[in-house]
Amino acid sequence: MITAIIQARMGSTRLPGKVLLPLGYTTVLGHTVWQVKKAKKIGRVIVATSTEKEDDAIELFCKENDIKIFRGNLNDVLDRYYQCAKSVGAEDVCRITADCPLIDPAVIDQVVSEYEQGKEKGECDYISTGRTTTTFPDGMDTEIFSFTALEAAWRDATLHSEREHVTPFIWNHPKRFRVVEVRNDWDISAVRLTLDEQSDYQVLTNIVAHVPDLSMEAIVRYLEEHPEVAAINSPIVRDEGYQKSLHEDTVYEAKKH
């Protein structure tokens, strides 16, 4: 059984409180949970937030909506994932972030299927829609890994970027872990469906209001037909948060010497 852990926090620097902004009939976080729960190959869904006071609102939302909740370390998200997975005895973990409310359950199922096939053959410890390169839209990010790989990363990862972003230690060590990347049929990586800025929120609310079938294909088709909507958040750099963490790694190492 695959355990999906959705990380969420209120303290976003670029858009504070973004995960509880209204979206459709619920919130951004609620929409993310709803989409993930529709995936046929996900056994359970847990929201993992921090123990900080400001994240009490996330716990309250989850309890009011019968969503499983775990609270752990704010900045060491790798530890939060490890402790959450360990607490429920998870064998395999699907990592999703709460700022991907339009994630397609069919994409999740595709990644799970390829992970299960690879694991059965002894050829996969970690699989994703792409980390160093990707052919999927920003906002379809799906990662699945074994608890064994997660535990190894939790034990050995030392860099800030590795602790904050959970999986870099795994996919940056392909000789140690069997790493697989799922490719989409066509490259639509320029499409942006994640939530970091106010302009992202404009795009997401527009899509939810006008696309009844929130499949990846339907969303991409809508944005192709309405380029003025896609243009709203197109200038934003992908994975800006991770790039910032890499810079902080460099600064920290320089201070050590």
SSE layout and pairing:
Layout: E1 2-7, E2 22-23, E3 26-27, H1 28-37, E4 42-50, H2 56-64, E5 68-72, H3 77-88, E6 92-97, H4 105-120, E7 126-128, E8 143-146, H5 147-156, H6 160-164, H7 168-171, E9 179-181, H8 198-210, H9 216-225, H10 227-230, H11 240-256
Parallel strand pairs: 1-4, 1-6, 4-5, 7-9
Antiparallel strand pairs: 2-3, 6-8, 7-8
Poorly predicted ranges: none
What is the first-to-last residue Cα distance?
Answer: 46 Å
* Beta-strand residue fraction: 15-25%
CATH class: Alpha Beta
What sort of overall outline do the alpha carbons produce when their principal axes are compared?
A: globular
Strand order of the largest sheet: 5-4-1-6-8-7-9
**Biggest sheet record:** 7 strands, mixed
Q: List the helices and strands in order.
A: EEEHEHEHEHEEHHHEHHHH
Number of helices: 11
Q: Quick one: CATH superfamily? A: Spore Coat Polysaccharide Biosynthesis Protein SpsA, Chain A
What is the SS-derived class?
A: alpha/beta
Determine the fraction of residues in helical runs and give it as a percent range.
Answer: 40-55%
CATH architecture: Alpha-Beta Complex
- Tally of individual domains: 1
Strands, total number? 9
Which value, in Å, is the CA radius of gyration? 17 Å
Overall pLDDT score: 94
Enter the CATH topology name. Answer: Spore Coat Polysaccharide Biosynthesis Protein SpsA, Chain A
